[in-house]
Design brief:
Radius of gyration: 22 Å
Binding site for ATP: 57-65, 80
EC number: 2.7.11.23
Domain Protein kinase: 51-334
Oligomer: single chain
Number of domains: 2
Strand order of the largest sheet: 1-2-3-4-6-5
CATH topology of the largest domain: Transferase(Phosphotransferase), domain 1
Number of helices: 12
Protein name: [RNA-polymerase]-subunit kinase
Order of helices and strands: EHHEEEHEEEHHEEEEHHHHHHH
CATH superfamily of the largest domain: Transferase(Phosphotransferase) domain 1
CATH class of the largest domain: Mainly Alpha
Keywords: ATP-binding, Kinase, Nucleotide-binding, Phosphoprotein, Serine/threonine-protein kinase, Transferase
Number of strands: 11
Shape: globular
Length: 379
Amino acid sequence: MAVVQPRGSRLSNAATVASAKVTSCSSSSSSSELVSFPSLEDQNKSIQDKYTKERKVGEGTYAVVYLGKQQVTKRPIAIKEIKTGLFKDGLDMSAIREVKYLQELKHRNIITLIDVFSSSNNLNLVLDFLPADLEVLIKDKSIVFKSADIKSWMLMTLRGIHHCHRNHILHRDLKPNNLLISPSGELKIADFGLARSLGNPNEDLSSNVVTRWYRAPELLFGAKHYTEAIDIWSIGIIFAELMLRIPYLAGKDDVDQLDVTFRAYGTPTEQIWPNVSSLPLYNALHIYPPPSRQEMRSRFSAATDKALDFLILLTQLDPSRRCNSTQALLHEYFTESPRPTEPENLPKKKNNKRENEDDDNLTSSNSGNGTDTSKKRRI
């Protein structure tokens, strides 16, 4: 077991900014009284000394993840070591975003950022260690999903994303392996490297976000202005995947993703989606009719009528017609029988191997299903 070692007194500027904690004090009754504060270096070393690294559990182009423990409590934690020295400006924008948004967002269905410290040329994020994810469970065909289980995972995902959206933050990379599972069964949204605050509505945003299979049609058409609806689409596709146990819209490349999406939902027209033809990459060379209710029913034969209604609402082609997170949480799907499974009773993968595999949602390695998440410096 290797103890996390401090670099010494010198910290990189970017790491110092990201890891420094703001210290405040009340004004003194005596103007001549001097107040001393520990240096940033001392604070940084104090944080490092609270944790030990045990073994590597994942590695990507720009980050390595270690299993570790808190020294006092022996609580298992993950240490995400971001290699700041590889970037021209000292720190990747995705790392700054991840620290910023995880410090702002505190919710039971969002991964907890426990601490931040710097060492050598690295910025270290201390996170909950969550050894399973939803993708692992979906792929394990020995595990049977009940409708109440799927409802529970959907409910926790929507509660987490609702907290993001009510704080005006888009996640922009929701997918099954960014939905981590705690030992107690709680689902927690992770990987905020592509997250973005919704500020000026006239500001251009990148359309090259979200892993391809979960990318909303407005992004596929190159939209520079979009809303929380892109996250809702991703959740709808995850819902479909939970029911089918295979990826729902698995395009081989960006062009094929358009074709796969519109084969499933029909080619958007001005009648279905006003002003769609004004989007930068709009292309209607292949005209597919929208699916009938019967066609949707045949794809999702095990879904109840309300579950099918819910899926259709989440995956409307026109983003203005998708429900928002509040409306989703109030949908009748969640109140019809059966009730959502309690987290502690949800299926779990026995002898889970996830911690021994490359973990792209923690390490930001390349994703096999669309987006190169190793290069997250997108605006």
